[in-house]
Write a structure and sequence with these properties.
CATH architecture of the largest domain in chain A: Sandwich
Shape of chain B: globular
Distance between the termini of chain B: 22 Å
Oligomer: heterodimer
Order of helices and strands of chain A: HHHEEEHEEEEEEEH
Shape of chain A: elongated
CATH architecture of chain B: Up-down Bundle
CATH topology of chain B: Cytochrome C Oxidase, Chain A
CATH class of chain B: Mainly Alpha
Helix content of chain B: 55-70%
Radius of gyration of chain A: 26 Å
Radius of gyration of chain B: 23 Å
Number of helices of chain B: 18
Strand content of chain A: 15-25%
CATH superfamily of chain B: Cytochrome c oxidase-like, subunit I domain
Helix content of chain A: 25-40%
Structural class of chain A: alpha+beta
Number of strands of chain A: 10
Number of domains of chain A: 2
Largest sheet of chain A: 5 strands, mixed
Order of helices and strands of chain B: HHHHHHHHHHHHHHHHHH
Strand order of the largest sheet of chain A: 3-2-1-5-8
Strand content of chain B: under 5%
CATH class of the largest domain in chain A: Mainly Beta
CATH superfamily of the largest domain in chain A: Cupredoxins -  blue copper proteins
Number of strands of chain B: 0
Chain lengths: 307, 542
């Protein structure tokens, strides 16, 4: 019946190890295991909040679990000490109600500040309307008369393991959402059928796309680059197959791109949809482009699709 | 006096064989039925989890269709919540509450029979939808419209099955309230009740308050689908988000329904094996009541991303953070109960200790999720999956397992095998962490939940989680074998079973008589939960 103390210490070192792993250097080369710091002011603030709360939890954990471990090692019947009989302490109870309360207020204040910033969409310089469909996205540059659909580019062969998966497996689309850096972009989010959620971790933007609602978010990207995300609200069969790719360009390049897009007389390219979509009324009007015809990412020329 | 004897005599002629179980109104029989039902559903729900984990072992679609995958995640949740955790706690309530408060039986025995026997039909109906045209429900257990309205033939069956489960829970809860408020032994005041009874009393009120809300919500879904209403249909002037408010107004109290009785179980086990009274009994009661109250005003933290007004987001963030205070009080009290005790580590105690540590880890991730700006990054990722599995598996499930080990000798009259109990414990604890800990990482790295296939950078953690899930699943077969072996035989258990056990249930024989306390025990006078004076008197008397 007696338990072995070694087993306990083993268990705690395992837990401790996992926690230590969790707080290791974020920029390690192996697979990511922490939240991205992202590429916007807001995403960095969110990351800092996340780490702040995480460290607070670690400290509380060390104190509480530490006390428990001490007790587990020391207060054993096998050591022959009779059990104490205390069962109440108003002071202690007051202290461990008041201290967590104070800590929570300490977390709430910076969190509220970030939240207020996140919800402030005023002074935006341009607007993109994002519409979710089963199972693709539609982007409409409201100020520029540019709009297109954005569909998963990964081939069925890769999904069904008939060919090798490329490095952006399931995170690549035919038409990327192109956004300028250093400009405050307002994003309007809605849906045409069921609820979706538009999420790009590097921008720390996640908002539900709800039919009948137009939700707002904003972002101001600091660095040019490609940022990938996914639909984050279960939206049916192909929920896992409607990624989001944002390409951030320096403002001048973005302006050139927009001009080129709006001048184009766009003819929707024909081709079979590469996604897993079944025939579905809601997507029948959208024409996916053939994956094999897609240009390399480095060429920003877009093969815009039209409805 | 002679009439009473005749009545008792009459009662003891219960039918045998299958009819005993179908017609029983005995709290112990019904408790047993609930617990076995829950155990069977645990393996069914676990099998679904293994289908999910098998598909997620590697990137790419290997085994199942995405639609079937979605119905597996949906069914796994419904089975585990409504078919495993809730019936298990109702089973424990049936077995233990009359024993703990010194009653003969539950207050409403016929309703008790009815509330159990609805369940197998509800779940037969629910599981049969997997074989219907269009497959089972695949819109997630949260049943969000408009997606859930795309369900095929299964839809009305799912709704009615949920109605039945709700009715069963409400009846079970009414019975618990009626029993606790009316059937306590003389002198058993509310503040002398064991914490398991207290937590169940509060849970029962939560159930009565919120199950009708769920029933209303799903009925509105039904009329939207079949009777042309537009409660949740934006095109008809309705509001899809309204459903989410209704659902989570049920859903958040529901998650406390799934955990509060565990607090009661742990508060019974820790003092027994620490041989020391529970620290802060009254603050435990108040903390439970505060958690229950707060559970009604935090629901929208499940839906921060729907685009609420800033004031709403701030309110729900602050209210949610507040829950950490009473929950913290509970954890501190448990640690303080262990402090300076004289502990031994039998299987129930091991599960209780693992509960405290792992539930607290789930509480930490819960606190992180409460922070609205950070929640925008966590929401609907595997971080959330990790969080609620930490509070439900090493939380609720471990507490249920601990309760079974703790009271099994009382129920069966036999001691279980400590060797197999400990083996079960260590395998479960190791594999549960291997399964769910990597989900924190993969969620933070950006993997959404409820997807059948994922990007390559998530592969390693998913493989680890799948290996853990199979290990955890197989470890439960040990538990099944152990329970069957203990029912069939084993070392005879004493009445008190555990050296440090306190409470009325330990004053009865093991197993207890078919009708628990035919004459109510006297707990009047100087008896005190902390000093155990009364129990000593009972023992000298008998």
């Amino acid at each position: 019946m007696k338990d072995n103390p070694i087993k306990h210490s083993l268990r705690y070192s395992l837990l401790g190890g996992l926690i230590a792993l969790f707080s290791l250097d974020v920029s390690a080369d192996i697979q990511p295991y922490n939240m991205t710091e992202g590429v916007t002011q807001i995403s960095k603030e969110v990351f800092d909040l996340h780490m702040l709360i995480f460290y607070i939890c670690c400290v509380i954990g060390i104190i509480v679990f530490g006390a428990m471990i001490v007790s587990l090692i020391r207060d054993r019947k096998s050591k022959g000490v009779p059990p104490a009989d205390f069962h109440e302490s108003v002071l202690l109870e007051f202290v461990w109600t008041a201290i967590p309360f104070a800590i929570l207020i300490g977390i709430a204040i910076p969190a509220a500040k970030v939240l207020i910033d996140m919800e402030d969409v005023s002074d935006s310089e341009m607007t993109v309307k994002v519409t979710g469909y089963q199972w693709l996205w539609h982007y409409d540059y409201i100020d520029h008369d540019v709009d297109f659909y954005s569909v998963l580019k990964t081939s069925r062969n890769e999904i069904y393991n008939r060919s090798e998966k490329n490095e952006n497996y399931l995170l690549e689309v035919d038409n990327e959402l192109v956004l300028p850096t250093n400009r405050k972009v307002r994003i309007l989010i809605t849906s045409n059928d069921v609820i979706h959620a538009w999420w790009v971790p590097d921008l720390a933007v996640k908002k539900d796309a709800i039919p009948g609602y137009i939700n707002q978010a904003w972002t101001e990207i600091d660095e040019p680059g490609i940022y990938r995300g996914q639909c984050a609200e279960l939206c049916g069969r192909d929920h896992g197959f409607m990624p989001i790719v944002v390409r951030a360009l320096p403002p001048e390049e973005f302006d050139a791109w927009v001009l080129q897009q709006s001048n184009k007389t766009v003819a929707g390219s024909q081709g079979s949809s590469i996604s897993l979509q079944q025939s579905n009324k809601t997507v029948a009007d959208s024409q996916g482009s053939n994956a094999s015809l897609q240009q390399e990412n480095k060429n920003i020329e877009q093969n815009a699709l039209i409805n | 006096m002679s009439t009473t004897t005749a009545d008792e005599h009459h009662d003891d002629h219960h039918p045998s064989g299958i009819m005993r179980w179908i017609t029983t109104t005995n709290h112990k029989d019904i408790g047993t039925l609930y617990l076995w039902f829950s155990f069977i559903m645990f393996f069914i729900g676990g099998f679904m989890a293994l289908i999910i984990r098998t598909e997620l072992f590697e990137p790419g679609m290997q085994f199942v269709d995405p639609q079937f995958f979605n119905s597996m995640t949906t069914m796994h949740a419904i089975v585990m919540i409504f078919g495993v955790v809730m019936p298990a706690f109702t089973g424990l309530a049936n077995w233990l509450i009359p024993l703990m408060i010194g009653a003969t039986d539950m207050a409403l025995p016929r309703m008790n029979n009815w509330s159990f026997w609805i369940l197998p039909f509800a779940f037969a109906m629910m599981l049969s939808t997997l074989f219907m045209d269009g497959g089972g429900p695949a819109g997630g257990w949260t049943l969000y419209p408009p997606l859930v309205l795309q369900t095929g033939d299964a839809f009305p069956f799912v709704i009615f099955a949920i109605h039945f489960m709700g009715m069963s829970s409400i009846m079970g809860a009414i019975n618990v309230v009626a029993t606790i408020l009316n059937m306590r032994a003389p002198g058993m005041t509310l503040m002398k009740m064991p914490l398991f009874v207290w937590t169940w009393l509060i849970t029962a009120y939560l159930l009565i308050a919120v199950m009708p809300v769920l029933a209303g919500g799903v009925t509105m879904l039904l009329t939207d689908k079949f009777f042309e209403t537009s409660f949740f249909n934006a095109a008809g002037g309705g509001d899809p988000v309204l459903f989410q408010h209704i659902f989570w107004f049920f859903g958040h109290p529901e998650v406390y329904i799934l955990i509060l009785p565990s607090f009661g179980v742990i508060s019974s086990i820790i003092p027994t094996f620490a041989r020391k009274p529970l620290f802060g009994y009254s603050s435990m009661v108040y903390a439970t009541a505060s958690i229950a109250f707060l559970s009604f005003i935090v629901w929208a933290h499940h839906m921060f991303t729907v685009g609420m007004p800033l004031a709403g987001e701030l309110f729900f963030m602050l209210a949610t953070m507040l829950i950490a205070v009473p929950t913290g009080v509970k954890v501190f009290n448990w640690v303080c109960t262990m402090w300076r005790g004289a502990m031994t580590f039998e299987t129930p105690m091991l599960f209780a200790i693992a509960f405290i540590i792992l539930f607290t880890i789930g509480g930490f991730s819960g606190l992180m999720l409460a922070i609205t700006p950070a929640d925008f990054q966590y929401h609907d990722t595997y971080f959330v999956v990790a969080h609620f599995h930490y509070v439900l598996v090493p939380g609720s499930i471990f507490a249920i397992i601990a309760a079974v080990y703790y009271w099994l000798p009382k129920w069966t009259g036999h001691m279980y095998s400590e060797f197999w109990g400990k083996t079960h414990f260590w395998l479960s604890t190791i594999f549960v962490n291997i399964t769910f800990f990597p989900m924190h990482f993969v969620g933070l790295a950006g993997m959404p939940r409820r997807i059948p296939d994922y990007a390559l950078q998530f592969s390693d953690y998913n493989q680890i989680a799948t290996i853990g899930a199979f290990g955890f699943g197989f470890a439960q077969i040990i538990f099944l074998g152990l329970v069957i072996a203990t029912i069939r035989g084993g070392v005879k258990a004493t009445d008190r079973v555990w050296e440090g056990a306190e409470g009325l249930e330990w004053t009865l024989s093991s197993p207890p008589p078919y009708h628990s306390f035919t004459t109510p025990p006297n707990v009047k006078g100087e008896w005190n939960w902390f000093t155990h004076q009364h129990y000593e008197t009972v023992k000298t008397r008998s």
